[in-house]
Amino acid sequence: MTVKAKKHLGQHFLKDENIAKKIADTLSLKDYDHVLEIGPGMGVLTKYLLQKNTTTHVIEIDTESVDYLKNNYLNLANRIYEKDFLKYDLTQIFNSEPFAVIGNFPYNISSQIVFKTLAMRHQIPEFSGMFQKEVAQRICSKEGSKVYGILSVLTQAFYNAEYLFTVPPSVFNPPPKVDSGVLLLRRKDDYKLPCDEALFFKVVKTSFQQRRKTLRNSLKIFNLSDNLKANTIFGQRPEQLSVSEFIELTGLIENDKN
Ligand code: SAH
């Protein structure tokens, strides 16, 4: 028995054992005792995780895949959660313990997976896995690049992001239409920002809502003083600002309010 791929769940099963092993090997397994795999499907990655010195948990939305895992990976036993990763409260599994996230992710929800990880950054020191190549590149891109955006800035504020390797469509069943890319995020030692973090998220999102406008125009809703708006940073477009300049910008806006 195998699982029939369902398009609406973004199911593209990896056929290549070497790539599965290579992805499982990206985790350092330092600083945490638990690993959460998102969307294990038929467990191609899971079986390599189970060989490691860590406790593997899997969260899978598809009942058919869950049945398959229960039948074929007996040692995963009660660590299979039939849930939607985006909706499930992960502290039900981990309390306040740290855990790593890994997966060959469903591409239809890849940005949301990253946003949820960022929201739980205090508990997630490491994150690794496969996205569609363009998304993986976007997350790792630097200022000045065409694909630099909200995902890049927010992720790199808290994590060192490394694009590891590209994977062709031919190693999946069914093959996706696009190339895939594996990336690794390692949380920075000093991931606490020297500014209001909620405001930082808001500033970054608002800045990129109108990519082509200067920050002076995009950030009007913050009611900035004329004095602050005269600062040359506001004459720039969001894609020109590095992550540390966004942090600096947030600090300026924060102080302007006081
Ligand atoms: N890791 C497997 C399957 C990858 S396909 C492999 O490499 O072969 C993506 C998997 O994510 C599918 O099994 C799909 O059912 C699952 N999935 C899709 N949306 C999900 C969600 N919201 N929460 C948890 N799993 C999800």
Task: Give an account of the 3D structure.
By secondary structure, the protein is of the alpha/beta class. The protein has two domains: 7-187, Vaccinia Virus protein VP39 (Rossmann fold, 3-Layer(aba) Sandwich), CATH 3.40.50; 197-257, Helicase, Ruva Protein, domain 3 (Orthogonal Bundle), CATH 1.10.8.100. The chain is 34% helix and 18% strand. The chain is built from eleven helices and nine strands. A seven-stranded mixed β-sheet has the order 4-3-2-5-6-9-7, sandwiched between helices. Helix 5 packs parallel to helix 7, helix 7 (150-158) crosses helix 11 (243-257) and helix 8 (197-209) packs across helix 11 (243-257). The longest helix has 15 residues, at 243-257. The protein starts with 12 loop residues before the first strand and ends with a helix. S-adenosyl-L-homocysteine is lined by residues 9-14, 38-41, 44-45, 59-62, 65, 84-86, 103-104, 106, 109.
Outline type: elongated
The percentage of residues in β strands lies in 15-25%
Spans with pLDDT under 50 lasting ≥5 residues? none
Structural class: alpha/beta
| The CATH C-level class name of the largest domain | Alpha Beta
The termini sit apart by: 64 Å
Order of strands across the biggest sheet?
A: 4-3-2-5-6-9-7
Task: Return the domain count.
Answer: 2
Give the CATH topology of the largest domain: Rossmann fold
| Count of runs of 4 or more consecutive helical residues | 11
**CATH level 4 superfamily of the largest domain:** Vaccinia Virus protein VP39
Instruction: Give helix % range.
Output: 25-40%
List bound small molecules: S-adenosyl-L-homocysteine
Count every beta strand, where a strand is a DSSP E run of 2 or more residues: 9
Radius of gyration: 20 Å
Could you give a short account of the major beta sheet?
7 strands, mixed
Mean pLDDT: 96
- Helix and strand succession? EHEHEHEHEHEHHEEEHHHH
Assign the CATH architecture of the largest domain.
3-Layer(aba) Sandwich
